[in-house]
DNA sequence: TGAGCTTGCGCCATCGATGGTGCAAGGCAA
DNA sequence: TTGCCTTGCACCATCGATGGCGCAAGCTCA
């Protein structure tokens, strides 16, 4: 077929030529099906040695075109700049490779259009599976995937058109809020109007569940919830900063305890405190829904919710391996609360 | 060709059938070359509307097989769990997409074998370009890429067989060391035997340059460098922990200033301090080669080297866009030193 | 010794998109 | 009315790997 290397890439035809064999024989040897095709061991060895000598590399584009499968598994994820999501991406890649799959991760900035466009591109490359992590509109993505017959699994945020693995956001938020209330008590400070919630999107499942946990914890403690102390302003840093600016401009005294919904928002909160000479970080008890090893140093009074990335990804691949998950499955994984300044806050591996 | 959808994926043949046109006409319309192929506007519009109605999605495997290019640009990177690398990955994806390229990022855990295997897989998928970030053996990877005629660019760590964009590690380390010495002076503490270097790999370019900067700063300040206070034990957390354990077991008093080579190692150092009741984090001035927004809270005396990810990726894509970079090019980008507890330490965006 | 089985391999269509080439119909000028 | 050019499209080989099918040679057993 070719006179050996046109563009530097060796094909099975080049090898066939050198080995005086047919391309299909070479192909069978290269993809490991040669035994079932009754190629003699002698021939297989010869071909293998020629192939490695010539530096053959299977063209996965061609292979994928002919077979049904690309062995690529795609994942979209909001960002890498957060310990929670970066751990998910790392473990996902590791586990995918352990199964002979090629991971294709792409971060989509919590932007619904970018999410859709990215998934469409992944489908265009004919990925075998898609994992949607923290997708803003999981159902739209599930619909896209269905059209292509590609199974999709939701992670972190649930969808109604596909199976989902998420944290128990309600319980985590409930416990975190109780922890903050208990800190206020320990500091001999009033609970009333002294606990602020910042960050997250009000219409998103995780945030609304966390808000529910926050509210119920307050209610169960007999503390009134002040509507203007619930700032679901979005996750972005600058949104948290703006929200705090507005709150303080409104004349509110800054509460002595703050529930921050994600490390992303926490960055904004920290920046805001540093920018305000009239505010002291050490006067505040922080609770953050998400964990970061260094955020445990913000002050001596930080609580963090650590979502169980290891268990979540284990379940994810369990589902992927078995493939027989129902569309309606939603699995909630318990997060754990860690106290900053505690050893265990630093000890958990990811 | 097909009786419309075998597996749910619409092809140009299906559309051709419905539009009563040839597949090549449909193909030309779908990939935008229809004007040069003199397809009438009427036909093009009809085909486009049918295509969107049928939910056509171009099969990139087939397209890539036929054309030379896949429009995929690969990147390997050591990890995502570090602000420096995660920022690089995020910006890389963003810039790649802005150019119509599909980014394929994969983290390879500073494991040479995994790096090679991953690059081979990427080459197997016929990526158009590869960016090697922090590769442990950039030249081996460059050799692989050369064989396939795929251009490779090194980022963060330089290689001799391809162009490289790196930080000015020497200068950053020199300045950081001077900063630490100045902190010791400000604290009225002796400089002699009071400054420790932890983390990194001695044979790796970045670490050796940083060590050189560290040593020269000591020398220029007239301070003797104690060999056992130079612990290039690797980057991993547990390696830093072990190194500190050994140091303290040797009877050395813990120095009052520590140069930590990466946030990864810094995590280990922090864990070590938390695990030791006889050590107080607040007695130590920290300098970290790398930046993390929350690490600035470790104590009130932290200096961080912030590598200029924005400029580095800008140059990277400048090179990619122009493509005429010499193999010997090594571009050094200046990092900046930020003081923790300063506002600017929180203000720089990535 | 011939029917039937096993071994070992080659032939060829196929996956979907692409682009070179060919060709008919219509237009226009001489 | 002939020759030539433009317009608008279809035909078909091709990219590389894959696997169903066929077939010849050797082997076995009645």
What does this molecule look like?
The structure is a homodimer. Chain A is of the alpha/beta class. Helix content of chain A is about 45%, strand content about 15%. Chain A has helices spanning about 10-20, 25-30, 40-55, 60-65, 85-100, 110-125, 140-145, 170-185, 205-220, 235-250, 265-275, 310-320, 345, and strands at about 70-75, 100-105, 130-135, 150-155, 165, 195-200, 230, 255-260, 285-290, 300-305, 330-335, 335-340. In chain A, strands 2-1-3-4-5-11 form a six-stranded parallel β-sheet, with helices on both faces. In chain A, helix 7 (about 140-145) links the parallel strand 3 (about 130-135) and strand 4 (about 150-155). In chain A, helix 1 packs across helix 3 and helix 8 crosses helix 9 (about 205-220). The two termini of chain A are about 50 Å apart. Mean pLDDT of chain A is about 95; it is low at about 1-5. At the A-B interface, helix 4, helix 5, strand 2, helix 6 and helix 11 of A face helix 4, helix 5, strand 2, helix 6 and helix 11 of B. The structure holds a DNA duplex (30 and 30 nucleotides).
Instruction: Please report the two chains with the greatest interface, counting residues with C-beta closer than 8 angstroms to the partner's C-beta.
Output: A-B, 64 and 65 residues
Q: Can you list the strand order of the major beta sheet of chain A? A: 2-1-3-4-5-11
Alpha carbon gyration radius of chain A = 26 Å
Characterize the quaternary organization of these chains.
homodimer
Report the helical percentage of chain A.
40-55%
Task: Sum up the overall morphology of chain A in one term.
Answer: elongated
Q: Which percent range describes the beta-strand content of chain A?
A: 15-25%
User: What's the tally of helices of chain A?
Assistant: 13
Protein structure class of chain A: alpha/beta
The arrangement of helices and strands of chain A along the chain is: HHHHEHEHEHEEHEHEHEHEEHEEH
Low-confidence stretches of chain A: 1-6
- Main sheet of chain A, how many strands, which sense, barrel? 6 strands, parallel
**Total beta strand runs of chain A:** 12
Distance between the termini of chain A: 50 Å
Mean pLDDT of chain A: 94
